[in-house]
Specification:
The complex is a heterodimer.
Chain A (H helix, E strand, L loop, with lengths): L3 E4 L2 E5 L4 E7 L6 E7 L6 E7 L4 E4 L2 E6 L4 E6 L8 E7 L12 E2 L3 E6 L1
Chain B lengths: L3 E4 L2 E4 L4 E8 L5 E7 L6 E7 L2 E5 L6 E7 L2 E7 L7 E8 L9 E2 L3 E5 L1
Parallel strand pairs in B: 2-11
Antiparallel strand pairs in B: 1-3, 3-8, 4-5, 4-9, 5-6, 7-8, 9-10, 9-11
Classes of the chains: A mainly beta, B mainly beta.
Chain lengths: ~120, ~110
């Protein structure tokens, strides 16, 4: 099955600086890579996702890059703000697994702390 | 609100108790999921249902028993649990399986097993 590794487990950055979270995956058949944000005491929510036919995707201050050859993908947050403080989870799945493991395989999460 | 609700939000039970967790989605989705979230661990997929049919059981112990009477409701029946089963149990739903579908999560049930 799929295995997703995520680093770092904790990341502290100054407000206004950039933050980068990295994930690697093991199953070369995975083709869908979402990122979820979970604020303290709240449910995970999708913030951005990328498909395997794209190398980079951007949405305002957040961007995700994907390197299929190396099987790793990263989340980039620029101009960080206090409301970016949360736990971020990367995930991977095979969107066309044909009835197999259709749930997401998540990384362990990164606790992002924005220092004022 | 994401349209996925879970009850109860908090549950404390003894190892000999039987209880059930309930999830309901109001999004018209066809796929529903149970995840377990423990401290310092990734979200662990437990069960997947598509159109009320179970498509995935991720080696979950039999003391957890899912039930999906229709596409909008999902239950997790609990019996003779262990203290290590204490965790946040999250339900999620998506439009369908086998595609690039966002999963919408419920608020979770915080379970404590004494």
């Amino acid at each position: 099955g799929e295995n997703v590794e995520q680093h770092p487990s904790t990341l502290s950055v100054q407000e206004g600086d950039s933050a980068v979270i990295k994930c690697t995956y093991s199953d070369s058949a995975s083709n869908y890579f979402p990122w979820y944000k979970q604020e303290l005491g709240k449910r995970p929510q999708l913030i951005i996702d990328i498909r395997s036919n794209v190398g980079e995707k951007k949405d305002q201050r957040i961007a995700v890059t994907l390197n299929k050859t190396a099987k790793h993908f990263s989340l980039h947050i620029t101009e960080t703000q206090p409301e970016d403080s949360a736990v971020y989870f990367c995930a991977a799945s095979n969107a066309y697994s044909g009835g197999g493991a259709d749930g997401l395989t998540f990384g362990k999460g990164t606790h992002l702390i924005i220092q004022p | 609100e994401t349209g996925v609700t879970q009850t109860p939000r908090h549950l404390v039970m003894g190892m000999t108790n039987k209880k059930s967790l309930k999830c309901e989605q109001h999004l018209g989705h066809n796929a529903m999921y149970w995840y377990k979230q423990s401290a310092k661990k990734p979200l662990e997929l437990m069960f997947v249902y598509n159109f009320k049919e179970q498509t995935e059981n991720n080696s979950v112990p039999s003391r957890f028993s899912p039930e999906c009477p229709n596409s909008s409701h999902l239950f997790l029946h609990l019996h003779t649990l262990q203290p290590e089963d204490s965790a946040l149990y999250l339900c999620a739903s998506s439009q369908e399986l086998g595609s690039y579908n966002e999963q919408f999560f419920g608020p979770g049930t915080r379970l404590t097993v004494l």
